[in-house]
Amino acid sequence: MNWTFLERADVPDGTELRLYQRGGHFMIRAAGTELMASHNYTSEEALASLACQLVGQRRRTRLLVGGLGMGYTLAAALRQLRTDAEVVVSELVPAVVRWNREHYGHLASYPLEDPRVRLHQGDVAKLLRAARNEYDAILLDVDNGPEGLARVKNDWLYSSAGLHSARLSLRANGVLAVWSAGDDDAFSARLRAAGYQIEVRRARRQPGARRSRHVIWLAMPIEDGEED
Length: 228
Fold this sequence. Notes:
Elements: E1 4-10, E2 16-22, E3 25-30, E4 33-37, H1 42-55, E5 62-66, H2 72-80, E6 86-91, H3 94-104, E7 117-121, H4 124-130, E8 135-140, H5 160-169, E9 170-180, H6 185-193, E10 196-203, E11 214-221
Parallel strand pairs: 5-6, 5-8, 6-7, 8-9
Antiparallel strand pairs: 1-2, 2-3, 3-4, 9-11, 10-11
């Protein structure tokens, strides 16, 4: 069965997103490449699960999720958080929010309807620049990871300046969790240079996959004196 084109949407810098459907599955493509799909979500769930294992049972946990996508990261976080938690999810493209609600939200059990969720329709970079000691965890599932695909301005999130802003945004013993479609040694080096200790995990691309292609960084800020 072929994919059927449903809708298109523009990213603010001019990149076009295209939504497709095949049977009960959906896919979003950018620049002619698959950006996300409802049959490839295992690693997105792992991003949330790994971060929530570290901070999810704290009282009044506050998470920032950069990138709504198809809602799987958000839904996985909500499953592991307490009832007093708050999750801020930031999505730049209004159409992606609408597609969640109108087309494929049921696949992730409509996470936007959870009362613990606060939606920010805008750039997650703006939130990071303004925040100080606000989040127990920051989950970045933006674009294709450090090697951007959909939007050049996403590169700031993975730059030294972006990583510094993320560190300032975290509460004590917080974690920055970053999803990527593949390895990136240069990004690991930037994380270390920005004052994080890191753990690199590999995750399956889709349920039942034999190969682990996607990468998740768990980055914890090193407090003053810890390296001595």
